[in-house]
Amino acid sequence: MDIRHLQYFMEVARLQSFTKAAETLYITQPTISKTIRHIEEELGVTLFDRSNKKIELTDAGKIIYEQAQPIVKAFQSLSAELGDLKNLQKGHIRLGLPPMVGSSFFPEVIGRFHKTYPQVTMQVFEDGAKKVMKDVESGLLDVGVAVLPTDENLFHHFSFVMENLMLLVHPSHRLAGHDAVPLNELAEESFVLFREDFALHDRIITECLRVGFQPRIVYESSQWDLISGMVAANLGIALLPETICRELDQERIRILPLINPSIPWQLGMIWRKDRYLSFAAREWISFTQKVLMGDRE
């Protein structure tokens, strides 16, 4: 006996008629009669008294009817809940965003997603890209934004930003009038960097070592506006993505291209390859890919 059999039995009991129950269930009367006989044979009891024109529940039938009601109701509720999830009427997404990414790219995207799927709730966790990647890997987050490349064996991803880091200096700095600055020109400078849990922290140090010097770090922060503020106060230099630089006050800071080498900054949405994603999370990935890739194009 399965839930469908119980539903057939409940409808016959409610309407006191095999014919009417078959009509409301859109099945044939022989099918419903066969199902009831199957239940009776399986349980070893008679469910309906068929001696009168209107069939009536037997004592055994009444017991089963009472016990079956919450079961069928729970199944109907479960089906409705799953339907809501499939139709994106409900759901919850845990999203990880690096701070400088969130303010630049995602307020509008999240707003558009919420307008399309108002019943889907979202928790946004702001952390450095390295922490976001770790939390997506562990399952604490459904999806997140990270600096690419990532481990191809662990993550699916799509890229939505590809640009370079720019050099920020004070207007009075010796390099302020240059058209572009080679990285090795910064060997004697004081650097203001993101903290160690940000992917750019390691990326900048690695590139500096590659051209022959260990950067002298005077301050680390998790906030790009504080980093740029320290440059404006002439406390050091910084390297920030082009997107962030477009939001800075260029009266207080000079922004210059970095060359030989340039340092790329590629962002992507990542999610685990081997973990189940909810309907809501899958729709978020599809939605943001269309919006962000479309905006980029």
TrEMBL record:
GO CC annotations, alphabetized: cytosol
Keywords recorded for this protein, A-Z: DNA-binding, Transcription, Transcription regulation
Residue ranges of every copy of the HTH lysR-type domain listed in the record: 1-58
Superkingdom, natural source: Bacteria
Pfam family, one: HTH_1
GO MF assignments: DNA binding; DNA-binding transcription factor activity
DNA-binding recorded as keyword: yes
InterPro entries the record matches: HTH-type_LysR_regulators, LysR_HTH_N, LysR_subst-bd, WH-like_DNA-bd_sf, WH_DNA-bd_sf
Family: Belongs to the LysR transcriptional regulatory family.
Protein name as it appears in the record: HTH-type transcriptional regulator YwbI
Organism of origin: Paenibacillus albilobatus
Gene from which this protein is expressed: ywbI
